Amino acid sequence: MALDAADLGPATSLTCRECGESYDLGPRYACEQCFGPLEIAYDFTGVTRASIEAGPRNIWRYRGLLPVPTNVQDTPNTEPGFTRLVRADHLAESLGMQRLWVKDDSGNPTHSFKDRVVAVALAAARELGFKVLACPSTGNLANAVAAAAARAGIRSAVFVPSNLEQQKIVTTAVYGGTFVTVRGNYDDVNRLASEIAGEQDDWAFVNVNVRPYYAEGSKTLGYEIAEQLGWRLPDQIVVPVASGSQLTKIDKAFGELIKLGLVEDKPYRVFGAQATGCSPVAAAFKAGHEVVRPVKPDTIAKSLAIGNPADGPYVLDVVRRTGGAVEDVTDAEVVEGIRLLAGTEGIFGETAGGVTVACLRKLVSSGALDPDAETVIINSGDGLKTLDAVAPVARPSAEIAPSLEDFRASGLA
Amino acid sequence: MALDAADLGPATSLTCRECGESYDLGPRYACEQCFGPLEIAYDFTGVTRASIEAGPRNIWRYRGLLPVPTNVQDTPNTEPGFTRLVRADHLAESLGMQRLWVKDDSGNPTHSFKDRVVAVALAAARELGFKVLACPSTGNLANAVAAAAARAGIRSAVFVPSNLEQQKIVTTAVYGGTFVTVRGNYDDVNRLASEIAGEQDDWAFVNVNVRPYYAEGSKTLGYEIAEQLGWRLPDQIVVPVASGSQLTKIDKAFGELIKLGLVEDKPYRVFGAQATGCSPVAAAFKAGHEVVRPVKPDTIAKSLAIGNPADGPYVLDVVRRTGGAVEDVTDAEVVEGIRLLAGTEGIFGETAGGVTVACLRKLVSSGALDPDAETVIINSGDGLKTLDAVAPVARPSAEIAPSLEDFRASGLA
């Protein structure tokens, strides 16, 4: 593909996160020397609070910090981001905390943070000459890719395990792209996607062959939190860990803001949250290991169920460097976390949100997290997509006949 | 209840929409003379574009035009509104139109426009001394009331028919309020709610005894559309019709903006959209009647399935006065409307959104709506809540084994 005309904004090159080898910008994702993951390097110029605040109310206000073209907001896209940062006084009170915020990413166009990463991947993929937006997925990513491609007027090709829940199938198929169910588990689908990427030159698998660009989209969570706090970093942040990329990119965003002088340089602590049924990073953290041993996932928190998280070691680095921790909670605690967030703040989070709230509670209880320091937690998706998780316990108070007598007798008056 | 301390902002009194009788502000909803519906009257002062633009990015930027206290945004609430107004060039192209926008209210906290009306009802109910936020509902309203009460830290009491879909039960029960299923249809539930409202002095049934306040929340859709177009009214707008209140309040909002000099006074045409299986207002419009004959609803568009719409005659007034029309479409056309909006713009709307898109298409085909004039349509809810409607047709392209050979053989490469 011809890259001469590509406008990737402030991005300058790709650098191996392991050996430091540098590459020209292009559709690469692994180091040719050591197979390490490639990361975008930048030359930021002219980014100020004012230039950001003058931008649109979505992730493109940070375009000067992303590998996307200067005019990215002029091409039809789903315009994700700038979701609510909700002051959560009732939840804080119930946990004995002082200042707590929920970054509620269920407000994105397809109701998960995946809209952010997909929007950045799509913008970069166009510049790199790709014609089809593709992914292997188990749910949220499938929704986000199919919607973003429809909005952009290009073809999507989404691959999912054939045993996926009916609701996730409908919510992807409705957008009308190419949608293939694969008889196998997610690992099988993922491997097939890599093989197809090797054959189909103009297919951008967002989380495979354009992953370095895609992953940068998570930085916008960090930028937004800082800006919405009034250009200030929180003292503590709790982030759900699947591949681990969301956590490391939020840390990267905070670091960039400090370096650019857009926020005061101050210490902050980063905490990771996992479900016990898929907690390889928490296990490594607790054991003091530097490597993450893969596990076979078994949890209701399916959007976090990555048994071999690509960024696991980097999560450990960030958490240890900042004085945080990685915690994990049982599925029963996840359900309680969902109900606690809904009941105190009126926010119905996905299972991943339940993991984060439950880990927050556990971290406060254990003393690992300071209840008096300002804390932000991420709700990365919407409870409407994981209804089965709470269905057994989210039940009516009573069933009555349509009469005042029956209502009085119910004791609910 | 003592109303001396009540701050209802610019609201001055309640006026009967039928006979013009005037009442002091309070928890009233029907005229004592003629049983007509009561409407809020105002004295607007000091509302300018600048004062609005200086407000928060939610419906409270219009607090100077609503029956809510001056400091409404300081009390915990779900902060709905200021949802996206999406330029829909692909949808326009497919319909042969020039300038089309989708006001996407699925971006509200519980993913429907009901968050707007509930937030206004809650704010007024607090001022009027109510202690419990209640409603009869079949879905979206139940979600919105339960979430808003949880966020506000007060009790909710929601009543629904016991045959409600499991997903709507879960999405209400998760917030932890009082949640009663009633063995009967929606009319039975509604009647029971009115009876309970007569007994429970401090229960505010948002759509019953505080309905005049509640209904005003829909005005914010009109304000936002005008502001998001750059303080300008569209030439045409298509609005789904259930009770009819959303349509009449958008018209009221446009009229207020003109009167206050916030937008240029220019003609605009208002169109109503119904599902044929519950189209009493469309039937009356087409027959040239001034009264609306109740029907027994039979449509997949359940959030619009009000067989005896309270504001039906007022919808006819608005539509006829502005040169619009009321159209209706079959359930099959509703499903096609949902797919068309998803496939062209990446927006997965509720069945009500499908009704609106399909009616738009029909209105363009018939020549009733001018394809060259700037048009706004409302997507009032989220497709995730009405998956069953599209499940039979939103299917995968193919199912394959996890092998390149199978993928190649699928013909999808």
How would you explain this protein's 3D organization?
Chains A, B: The modification N6-(pyridoxal phosphate)lysine is found at residue 114. Chains A, B: GO terms for molecular function: L-serine ammonia-lyase activity; threonine deaminase activity; threonine synthase activity. Chains A, B: Keywords: Lyase, Pyridoxal phosphate. Chains A, B: It comes from Thermomonospora echinospora. Chains A, B: Belongs to the threonine synthase family. Two copies of one chain form a homodimer. Chain A has 413 residues and is of the alpha/beta class. Among the domains of chain A are: 85-111 and 215-390, 3-Layer(aba) Sandwich (Rossmann fold), CATH 3.40.50; 129-209, Rossmann fold (3-Layer(aba) Sandwich). Helices cover 37% and strands 16% of the residues of chain A. Chain A has 15 helices and 14 strands. Chain A has helices at 49-53, 89-95, 114-127, 140-152, 166-173, 186-199, 211-216, 219-228, 245-259, 280-287, 312-322, 331-345, 351-366, 387-390, 404-409; strands spanning 11-16, 22-23, 38-42, 85-87, 100-104, 132-136, 155-161, 178-182, 203-205, 236-240, 269-275, 326-329, 375-379, 398-400. In chain A, the strands form three sheets. Chain A has a six-stranded mixed beta sheet with strand order 4-5-13-10-11-12, sandwiched between helices. In chain A, strand 6 (132-136), helix 4 and strand 7 (155-161) form a beta-alpha-beta unit. In chain A, helix 2 (89-95) crosses helix 12 (331-345). The radius of gyration of chain A is 21 Å and the shape is globular. The model of chain A has no long low-confidence stretch (mean pLDDT 96).
